[in-house]
Amino acid sequence: MASLSQQMSLYSMTRMALTLGPGLGFLIFLHSGTLNMRPDILDLDNRVRDVPIYEINSTYDFVIAGGGSAGTVLANRLSENPFWNILLLEAGPDEITISDMPLMFPTLQLSPLDWQYQTEPGENYCLGFKEQRCNWPRGKVLGGCSVLNAMLYIRGNKKDYDRWEAVGNPGWKYEDVLPYFKKSEDMRIPDLMDDKYHGTGGYLTVENYRYRSSIAKWFLKATEELGYQIRDLNGEHQTGFNLPQGTLRDGLRCSTAKAFIRPVSKRKNLHVSLHSRVEQILINEDRKQAYGVVFNKFGTHNTVFAKREVILSAGSLVSPQLLMLAGIGPEEHLKDKGIKVLVNSAGVGSNLQDHAAVGGATYVLDKPREFENETLTFQLANIFSTETVNDFTQKKQGPIYWLPVCEVIGFVSTKYQNPKVDWPDIQFFLSSAADSSDGGLFGRRAEGLTDELFAAIYENLIDKEAFNIYSLLLRPKSRGRIMLRDKDPESKVLIYPNYFSNKDDLKVIIEGAKIGHQIAMSQVMQNFNITFNPNRIPACKHLELFSDEYWACHVKQITLTIYHPVGTAKMGPEDDPSAVVDARLKVRGIRNLRVVDASIFPYIPTGNTNAPTIMVAEKASDMIKEDWGVLDNFIDSSENPEILQKASSDGKLRTAPSEDFNAKHEPKLQKTPEMHDPDYW
Ligand SMILES: Cc1cc2nc3c(=O)[nH]c(=O)nc-3n(C[C@H](O)[C@H](O)[C@H](O)COP(=O)(O)OP(=O)(O)OC[C@H]3O[C@@H](n4cnc5c(N)ncnc54)[C@H](O)[C@@H]3O)c2cc1C
């Protein structure tokens, strides 16, 4: 006879299988409706053209590996110079229509647009997940994680960047990076358009989410009841709460592919090659100089040369992997994998930091009559409807523009952080959904929660209104590491996040969970007769509910990544042996090679990481122009045929137009080389 928990789990799986049919049906209906009725989403005139192999030149000025949040910005900014030609190599395809829709954000995980990484098991995290591994989604698509992310636009704290500079990175203090945040930005929230902390007219549009539940206003009232202020969290002060700002355009996702590549997709000096996975960085071992890459497109291995630089923008997991495969990394580890060491760079792959959160802090509503007709929480069965599809496709409104997972966002200081300093140590997502809200179809699957645990704590809440409070640790002291599995570039790296290996991290996040609980149980929220999920996590059942020990057990069981791995090729001064790149993002020990993406962060910022990554790429673009002596405001060559004409007689912009210009700006290694002879380079 099966135990009760086994029976529950079997029931839960059967129910999920039965719900999947209507769920998939809805997605197909939504997709086909969008194809027919929303040409603005298809945007066929501006989509990037995937350059076929036979049109790819053998040499470019810059070859960028990875077209994610950072790579797309670089491709845009570097190709502003009509005298340079740029190749952007992206392993994934272009964006799809579904990815434009905020509500669909969880459905992209474990899809073909996701690399589908998993962490190695550990003692302190993800214990309630399948094989005790946390799922780590990463975008495999033009725009990278900016296509999979929750679109939250948060820059971090002033002190984060002041600290970056203080540890030996000149030019990275807040005052220096603020102009680059503003440069990208096209702030469209009316009250903030003239604000000194915001920019308008940039490529990246920022808006509030177009649809929200009415619970958002109650959440805000609850935080005010606790004494927090409602304010712009990207402005003068960070502590407080607000409705989230999102990288959104007309209510839809504004990925970096949409923002930075589509407007310049016609530039002749920018080639974008999709489905192109970089496998190897080519390095002249004597000169210690990068000169190209090998990439795989549809099974063919292609070599392409970089006259000036190879730039790695493949994200925090693959940029360090490519470095290690090229012999740049910790000596012992490389030798162990049979890789010849070119530069013993101890920091490659280490210093891994991420934002971990308390998952599964679920509260159930017992809605009084007066709220009967209000949508307070997300419930898949109510939302996945014909009306929703029609609203979206015909009226450009409705729940498809919704991000239930973060109705309200906020930053607070626990007792471990001096609140006067305004450098919060906990972030909150106040969500109008719980894992039960979608019947386990998307959230549970994306997280990797075991069927047994899901059945035990959620199955009897499926038809109930419930919400989650996510408290996440902003500045972890724990450090993780990524390592090579083997020498094969197609192998995924091994990820050791080491969440909570430093006990202080656990203490802070426990305080965060307690503050989250206070918000949920505030007087204001009692309008809805809120109770904490009455079902207990089996592994924590023996502990006194809401004690420190309980929360510690809870967060170790349901540990959520907030998807912000950074720091695995950190920027730092010469006397720091763990610094992989210098403050100009040049790889130490190898010429003509930079890393420009979230790997270079020395410390994780106090907030989400997309905007900081875009800022890094904006700043890097200027540094690259400066280093090659061409920091000008170039005119977009696609709109200026005269410049194109002047720049190159064959229209390909391979060479600079005048001898003067050549003499001043061309790299040392230009002639007509036997390019396949590595000695030349
Ligand atoms: C599910 C999810 C939700 C998130 N939510 C938010 C949020 O709401 N707000 C926020 O600020 N941040 C969020 N983030 C984090 C943020 O999006 C990332 O920190 C940021 O996008 C990282 O940018 P990147 O350029 O370093 O890497 P990526 O954007 O990952 O770009 C790397 C690119 O390189 C490509 N690539 C990898 N290997 C190769 C190779 N060998 N050859 C060629 N190309 C390769 C990848 O396909 C990818 O396109 C989220 C992330 C995820 C995954």
Automatic annotation (TrEMBL):
Span of domain Glucose-methanol-choline oxidoreductase N-terminal: 60-356
Region (Disordered): 645-681
Keyword Flavoprotein: yes
Pfam families linked to this entry: GMC_oxred_C (PF05199), GMC_oxred_N (PF00732)
Keyword list, A-Z: FAD, Flavoprotein
Domain Glucose-methanol-choline oxidoreductase C-terminal, chain residue ranges per copy: 476-617
Compositional bias of kind Basic and acidic residues: 661-681
UniProt: FAD binding residues: 141, 278
GO molecular function: flavin adenine dinucleotide binding; oxidoreductase activity, acting on CH-OH group of donors
Cofactor(s) recorded in Swiss-Prot or TrEMBL: FAD
Family named by the database record: Belongs to the GMC oxidoreductase family.
Name by which UniProt lists this protein: Glucose dehydrogenase [FAD, quinone]
Organism annotation: Psylliodes chrysocephalus
